[in-house]
Amino acid sequence: MNNLLGKTKRLFGLSMAGMAMMPAFAAESGDGKKPMNILFIMCDDHSYQTISAYDSRFISTPNIDRIAADGVRFTNSFVANSISGPSRACMLTGKHSLANGFTDNSSSFDGSQQTFPKLLQKQGYETAVIGKWHLTSEPTGFDHWDILIGQGDYYNPTFIRNGKKVKREGYATNVTTDLALKWLEEERNSEKPFCLLLHHKAPHRTWMPDTCDFDLFADAEFPLPATFYDDYKGRSAAKGQKMSISKDMDLVYDLKLADKDSTIHSRPDLEEWGRRMYSNMNPEQKRAWDAHYDVVIEKFKKAGLEGKELDAWKYRQYMRDYLRVITSVDRNVGRVLDYLEAEGLIDNTLIVYTSDQGFYMGEHGWFDKRWMYEESFRTPLLMRLPGGVGGDVPAMVQNIDYAPTFLELAGVDVPSDIHGRSLLPLLQGKEWEPGREGIYYHYYEYPDEHAVKRHLGIRTEWYKLIHFYDDNVWELYDLRNDKNELNNIYGTPGTEELTNTLKAMLVNLQKQYGEEKFINEKQ
Ligand code: SGN
Ligand code: CA
């Protein structure tokens, strides 16, 4: 059993290499001392592959990396349900999806339930959420909220500020950051500690860059990932998906080839939206947009690409726009860090950077998320705690752990119905017990536009067992020898004992998290 669990159960979570104590800070939570502020920055669909603190192949993100350089980089950070609304609900409540009631993006969050912002408010914190919310119902537990409607627009987005609609001119990542800085500087009650959720819509589809970033990555080649032409052998669930860059990514809608004479066509269902999405731009933005994309369009038409050449072009164009959007995120993270430094807040604020889930940068031929496969199950997680340790934390952590972390930091007793475990000991270099036999995952949204079947499963350090329960299809991966999860070994001779053990552990997790009704009777 210990082998199965790998280091997760044994370790204290910290790799000693690169671990260093940060200078002690003056204020600590509890015991009458000044409590720590919390700045929780989250992006939408930001892959760890495109943060240079994790992976320097594609982009340099010097500002996001500042958080890692002075803090902790979690190298095994996972979500509970790889999709926006559910992920956010898991973070707010510290509970898995069934328990918090928000299982897929068509749900509406029950705002009367316990959340960490409410508990922090009771503890005397001033709380705010600014940017993407995506939980349908109005935010509760926040002294101030200024949220995008649904996914929000990249250009000149409309927000709802404490119940009132406000349209704002500018690019979403800049505008959202402006609002956060204004709240920090002028609007909050500075007598109280703050907890600010600064949640960007970027880099969500359709990856529309700011006009000042169009020239970036123009010459970058971006070779196709090794698994781009994955044939999904032995993985029947993956064969039915609709998130292929080659087949499902639209030239007009996703890749912005809205030519004036309408000769470029790929997916009729998306094309109309592709032509409509610029309607929100002002003339100056539209001029800059056209000056850039008209050139791209003309080159594309002349090239007359087909087959694998067309695939390579689509991948490159996707990567360029996505990375341009990340450049803007990174710049804006820098603005906030600079502000905290200038105001002397940096040494009294826990800074968190994460995403609502991971994202495919062409691995398996995909964009989007949803799967329990590594690229979307993992999510970036950086935390900078003044007075805490620095370096890598390899412990397997999950987004249900954020709520108890914030609560413990603020000196609130963590309610016993919360599923997650506080990560504070890991940030302080102390021993940590995960309180679970592995990481549980459950994705519920089918049918949906990307046609990913509902599935649940367990991950240990070495293995992953997935059940696509509507079709009773199982998958088992040996992650040590098959990092790309191409070889489903479920049912192969010699794996019986391992499979039975993992199934028993999965049932334990389902009982632990109130998901008994999903226990597979036929094991
Ligand atoms: C939209 C996107 C999908 C995406 C979902 C969920 N389509 O529907 O590609 O999977 O959001 O994303 S789009 O045409 O509207 O861009 S989530 O991160 O918000 O859950
Ligand atoms: Ca998302």
Short description:
The protein is globular and about 65 Å long.
Structure description:
The protein has 523 residues and is α/β, with parallel strands linked by helices. It has 2 domains: 36-206 and 321-431, Alkaline Phosphatase, subunit A, CATH 3.40.720; 213-319, no CATH class. The protein is 30% helix and 14% strand. The protein is built from 15 helices and 16 strands. The chain has helices at 2-5, 7-10, 62-69, 84-93, 97-100, 116-122, 172-187, 236-239, 268-276, 283-303, 307-342, 374-377, 402-409, 424-427, 496-512, and strands at residues 37-43, 72-74, 77-78, 126-131, 144-148, 158-161, 164-167, 194-199, 349-355, 381-384, 391-393, 397-398, 439-443, 455-459, 463-468, 473-478. Strand 6 and strand 7 form a beta hairpin. The protein is globular. The two termini are 19 Å apart. 2-deoxy-6-O-sulfo-2-(sulfoamino)-alpha-D-glucopyranose (SGN) binds at residues 44-45, 83-84, 105, 151, 204-206, 356, 368, 449-450.
Write the layout of secondary structure elements.
Elements: H1 2-5, H2 7-10, E1 37-43, H3 62-69, E2 72-74, E3 77-78, H4 84-93, H5 97-100, H6 116-122, E4 126-131, E5 144-148, E6 158-161, E7 164-167, H7 172-187, E8 194-199, H8 236-239, H9 268-276, H10 283-303, H11 307-342, E9 349-355, H12 374-377, E10 381-384, E11 391-393, E12 397-398, H13 402-409, H14 424-427, E13 439-443, E14 455-459, E15 463-468, E16 473-478, H15 496-512
Parallel strand pairs: 1-8, 1-9, 2-11, 3-12, 4-5, 4-8
Antiparallel strand pairs: 2-10, 5-6, 6-7, 9-10, 13-14, 14-15, 15-16
Bound molecules: 2-deoxy-6-O-sulfo-2-(sulfoamino)-alpha-D-glucopyranose (SGN) and calcium ion.
